Amino acid sequence: VQLQASGGGLVQAGGSLRLSCVASGDTFSTYRMAWFRQAPGREREFVAAASTNGGTTRYSNSVKGRFTISRDNAKDTGYLQMSSLKPEDTAVYYCAAGRAIVSAWTERERWNYWGQGTQVTVSS
After folding, report:
1. Rounded distance, CA 36 to CA 107, Å?
2. C-alpha distances out from residue 79 to 7, 20, 26, 40, 54, Å
3. What is the pLDDT of residues 83-97, one digit of tens each?
4. What b/e sequence results for 4-21 when a residue is b if at least 16 CB atoms lie within 10 Å of its CB, and e otherwise?
5. For the chain, what is the mean pLDDT?
6. Which pLDDT band holds residue 48 (cuts at 50, 70, 90)?
């Protein structure tokens, strides 16, 4: 499956953005999906993940309550709604797809397919 992330941009602290991840080449609904992010000089870190139908989700503690992951399988698209953004949310955001079990969702090496990344910059 190929993934294309979009929706990043420059936003002020406290603002919102919605990222999209469009899948092609395979049946998106058979894959779990996730969002990771990577800030300059730091490792890529887990942000959120969702099961194939979106009924099960997980979030990192740093974004819990502010970000929401969702998906529309009819459109082969996943989303990350980000609210109450903080300067420390600044990073390149990547969507991923795979078949990892829930307990492995935070491990980036468990995700098989990656999008190209979209830059999110939050100004203070």
Report:
1. 10
2. 10, 5, 18, 23, 11
3. 999 999 999 999 999
4. ebebbeebeeeeebebbb
5. 97
6. very high
